[in-house]
Amino acid sequence: MKAIKHDVLIVGGGMVGLGLACALKGAKLSVGLFERAESKPMLSLERDCRVSAIVAGNVEILRGLGVWTHLEEHAGPIRAMRVWDGQHAGSIRFEAFEIEQEALGYLIENSQTCNAMQETLHDADNVHLYCPAEIEDVQWAADQVSVRLNDGRAFAAPLIVGADGARSWIRNKAGIGLCVERDYEQKGIVATVKPQFSHRDTAYQRFSTTGPLAFLPMTGGLCSIVWSAENQDADRLMAFDDAGFLEALNLALGPVLGRIEEAGERAAFPLKARLADHVVRPRLALVGDAAHTIHPLAGLGVNLGLRDAMVLAQEIVDARRFREDIGEMDVLNRYMHKRMPDVLSVMGSMESFHQLFTHDWPMLPQIRNFGMRLLGNAGPLKAMLMRNSTGLSLPVPKQIS
Ligand SMILES: Cc1cc2nc3c(=O)[nH]c(=O)nc-3n(C[C@H](O)[C@H](O)[C@H](O)COP(=O)(O)OP(=O)(O)OC[C@H]3O[C@@H](n4cnc5c(N)ncnc54)[C@H](O)[C@@H]3O)c2cc1C
Fold first, then answer.
1. S-S: 273 plus which of 153, 182, 303, 351, CB 3.0-4.6 Å?
2. pLDDT (tens digit, 9 = 90+) per residue, 146-183?
3. Using an 8 Å Cβ cutoff, are 15 and 302 in contact?
């Protein structure tokens, strides 16, 4: 069968792969995106139990891509965040007004983000979505990469992008290993819950030595929880019936939201940090979870991935404008060099936070509590940290500014 030609092949139609396709919408390039299956969200109190906090800086990116108009009504603002130490007195509060923002970020169901991106792509003449599309084989040659689907269709392009998630098939196929693979020996339990009191658009995060418990404000007065617990504890929590789980949850959170009255279906995800030992190879670039995963304690994973997608799109478009070969290492290295400082600094911060709250060194609680008090009173330093973690200090990618 004759190969269908595109300029860029994207493997994976999750938030990052679709985000990249949105960023390439309207460019003078033809894009083919392959997604294995129509996504069927797992519902918890009738909401997708997979949610992401999209930070304020990335909301600007989604606005620039035209995705936000389809998403806004589904997005729950996070106007404040309260973090406290479950075993000791330390606590800190972050308010959006401290950095002159309406919200620190927005909580959105992952399936809603994907739907909004697909709607954005609806009228994109240069982007072709192939779904369901299972890739059976990929071959790299000097001047192109070729792909064959399990239904026999064949494709070729100068560049393929792996956006196929943490256990990336394309990464494995390219023989790329992991230079970081850190098993936290924890699982993240997610569910939608209904608290007695209003969450007042506030995210609550309680840290303990066994891991953080986050309550994230959703639309409709609901909260999404991410409860990171050591494997054994997580398995025990997953095995509880609804009443037992609610009891444990109420005990762990305390009274800040009154009683948690209802909890929907739960799902648990093993937590691992990973970094691919090569993010680019000739005619291949990895983005999102295919390139790196982090602990979800600060909710930054897909935020990093969206920034990968934006920078890669910009490099591809610029390279094409200057008649460079978009699959060559000169072009792909520019993408990698621009992204690595952000990725490594977020990975490093997540590891430090994790150590700070889980290590059993006797002085650590005092250091933690002192640190939170100090930061709480250090106006400009606190504002700088907030601007960094919400992505507002990063430049808005050229293409969408
Ligand atoms: C408990 C938990 C909570 C989290 N909370 C947050 C948060 O609040 N904020 C945040 O920023 N991040 C959060 N994250 C991280 C976030 O979920 C991920 O970073 C994000 O989903 C990664 O998106 P992706 O598109 O790179 O990969 P994925 O979402 O894994 O998408 C990959 C896609 O590729 C498809 N695919 C795979 N293989 C193939 C193939 N061979 N052919 C075709 N298609 C294929 C899959 O079907 C899938 O649709 C959280 C993670 C966890 C575990």
1. 182
2. 999 999 999 999 999 999 999 999 999 999 999 999 99
3. yes
Buried b or exposed e, range 66-103, using 16+ CB within 10 angstroms: bbbebbeebbbbbbbbbbbbbeeebebebebeebebeb
pTM over 0.90: yes
What number of other Cβ atoms are within 10 A of residue 360's Cβ?
Answer: 7
228-to-206, 250, 270 alpha-carbon distances in Å: 11, 15, 9
Answer yes or no: is 20 within a domain: yes
d(CA 145, CA 143): 7
The residue among 34, 53, 127, 61 whose CA lies nearest residue 314 is: 61
In a domain, 193, yes or no: no
Enumerate the β-bridge partners of residue 207. Answer: 85
Sequence-distant (6+) residues with CB within 8 A of 27 are 126, 313, 316, 317, 320
Residues 300-320: tens digit of each pLDDT: 999 999 999 999 999 999 999
Lowest-pLDDT choice from 138-147, 339-348, 374-383: 374-383
Range of the domain at 60: 4-179+272-400
The answer to whether the CB of 187 falls within 8 A of the CB of 174 is no
Q: Is residue 331 assigned to a domain?
A: yes
Q: Computed from CA positions of residues 91, 354, 51, 276, in that sequence, does the dihedral angle turn out positive or negative?
A: positive
Q: Which residue has the higher pLDDT, 395 or 325?
A: 325
CATH number at residue 109: 3.50.50.60
Residue 316 maps to a domain: yes
Q: Cα-flanking dihedrals φ and ψ of residue 332, to 5°? A: -70, -35
What is the average per-residue pLDDT within 381-385?
86
User: 34, 55, 164, 237: which to mutate for ligand 1, most atoms within 8 A of CB?
Assistant: 164
Q: Which of 37-41, 97-101, 116-120, 265-269 has the lowest mean pLDDT?
A: 37-41
The number of distinct structural domains making up the chain is 1
> And the tokens for 49?
């139990």
